[in-house]
Amino acid sequence: MSVNPKPLPLVFDEPRGRKKPPRHLADLDEAGRKQLLIDAGLPGFRAKQLSNHYFARLVDDPAEMTDLPAGQRDDLVKALLPELMTPLRRLEADKGTTVKTLWKLFDGALVESVLMRYKDRTTMCVSSQAGCGMACPFCATGQGGLQRNMSTAEIVEQVVAGARAMTRGEVAGGVGRVSNVVFMGMGEPLANYKAVIGAVRRLTDPAPGGLGMSARHVTVSTVGLVPRIKQLADEGIPVTLALSLHAPDDELRNELVPINTRFSVAETVDAAHEYFAKTGRRVSVEYAMMRGINDQAHRADLLADVLNERGRGWVHVNLIPLNPTPGSKWTASDPADEREFVRRLEAKGISTTVRDTRGSDIDGACGQLAAVE
C-alpha cells in the first residue's frame, strides 16, 4: 500500500471569511439567551419559555407556543429560534429503525446525521463539521476536505430533530426518546472544540436549559488531537472518549490517519490513558477493519501490547467492519480474519466488540450521501 497523505494545517481552523450561522438559543447559556432578547428590545424572561418549548416540549411550530403573547410570538421565535437547517433527503434501513438524514445548512453546506434505534436505546450519530480536514484516505468525508465548522446550535439541532421524531412516533417502533449521542458523523469533533463542548453542555444541561441527557451517554470521537484530548479531560464533563486508532504502529497509521505524523501512536494512546486516569471513564478505541491493510493477526497482538503497556481495564476496543465507499479499494475484512483479530485481543485481556453494522444500503459511511448529492 502506498498513500501520500495530504499535508495537514498547523491549526485546526475552518477557512476564514465565511458568514456565521444565525445565533440560536442552543448557542447560548440561559443568561446569554435572556440578554439576546433584551438587546432585541424583547422581554428577557421569555427566554426560559422558548427554551422549554425547544428542549423540553420539542416544539417547532410557533402556533403551539401558546404561553407567548400572540403579538410578540413571531419576533421572539425569530430572535432565538431561527431555522438552522433543512432536510434534503431522509433514507431508512433496518426496517425503519435506522434513519439517515441529509441536511442543508443556511449557506448550502451539506451534513448528515443518523438515528439508530435498538431494543434498549436510541443513538443519534451527529456531524460536527461540514467536511473534514483530517484527510484519512479510507473515509468518504475526509476526501472532500473541510468546508467549515458547524455551530453549537447546528450540532444540537441534529439531536433535537431526532428527539422530535422519536417523541412523535415517526420512527419504527413507536414513541420513544433519544438516549445516546455519538460525535462520529462528518468532521473531527476536537478540531471544532469550542462548538462541540458547547453542544455537549446543551445536551447535558438540565431541562429546560438543555436536553438533560447523561454525559455518560455522550461519546466524543477523535483521530488523536492530543492537546485537545488533554483539554477535554479537564472540562469536568464525564463523556466517553473514543479514539479512532485504526493501526497500532506508526508506519501504517501515518498512512491511514495523517495526523499521526504529528502525534505518534505512543503520544496519542498516552493522552487517551491520561483521559481515563483523570475522569475514570473507560476509553473506547475505534478500529476500522480493512481487508489486507490493518487486519493481520500480528497487528492484533501489537494493538493489545500497546494498550496493555498502559495498564489493564482502562480501554475497550470497538472493531468496525468498514462501510466501503463506491469504487474504493478499501473494503471490509474477511469474517474469518475479523474473528481471529477478536480472539487474539481477548486472549491478551482486551475487552473487544464488533460494531453492529447499520445503514450500508443507505450510503452508511459518513459523507457518502453528501458526496453523492
How does this model look, in words?
The protein contains 11 helices and 12 strands. It has a 10-stranded mixed beta sheet, with helices on one face. The protein has a two-stranded antiparallel sheet with strand order 5-6. The chain is of the alpha/beta class. The N terminus is likely disordered. The protein is elongated, with a radius of gyration of 21 Å.
Q: Give the H and E element order.
A: HHHEEEEEEHEHEHEHHEHEHEH
Number of domains: 2
Cα radius of gyration in angstroms: 21 Å
Q: Please give the share of residues in helix.
A: 25-40%
Q: Specify the number of helices.
A: 11
Coarse structural class: alpha/beta
Distance between the termini: 30 Å
Strand portion: 15-25%
Largest beta sheet: what is the strand line-up? 1-2-3-4-7-8-9-10-11-12
Unreliable spans: 1-11
The appropriate CATH architecture of the largest domain is: Alpha-Beta Barrel
| Average of per-residue pLDDT values | 92
How does the overall form come out from the CA principal axes? Answer: elongated
Number of strands: 12
> Largest sheet, if any?
10 strands, mixed
According to CATH, the homologous superfamily of the largest domain is Aldolase class I
CATH fold-level assignment of the largest domain: TIM Barrel
Name of the level-1 CATH class of the largest domain? Alpha Beta
Give a quick summary of the entry:
Residues 1-11 have low confidence and may be disordered.
Keywords:
DNA polymerase, domain 1; TIM Barrel; 12 strands; tRNA processing; 2 domains; Methyltransferase_A; cytoplasm; alpha/beta; ten-stranded mixed β-sheet; rSAM_sf; disordered N terminus; 373 residues
